[in-house]
């Protein structure tokens, strides 16, 4: 069975305090749904080498055992509560993708 992934790119982070509240709630929801965080992004000391456009935005990669599990985690009550904690006007590119078996 192919794994499922959440991929998020954050073009800008204007309110780190409110984002921290989301991070805490989202982390709990992801863990409860069986997700594993595979990324360290620049704001937490992860190393980045940027090519092409040269952008070093915050990137989050979460792995689930299946695509269906990834979709269910996003739709879960716990994660929906986390989304409410995102700051107003917050922008991110969020995708759920199916891995290659």
UniProtKB/TrEMBL annotation:
Segments forming domain DUF1330: 3-100
InterPro entries: Dimeric_a/b-barrel, DUF1330
Family matches, as Pfam families: DUF1330
Domain of life, source organism: Bacteria
Protein name: DUF1330 domain-containing protein
The organism of origin for this protein: Actinomadura meridiana
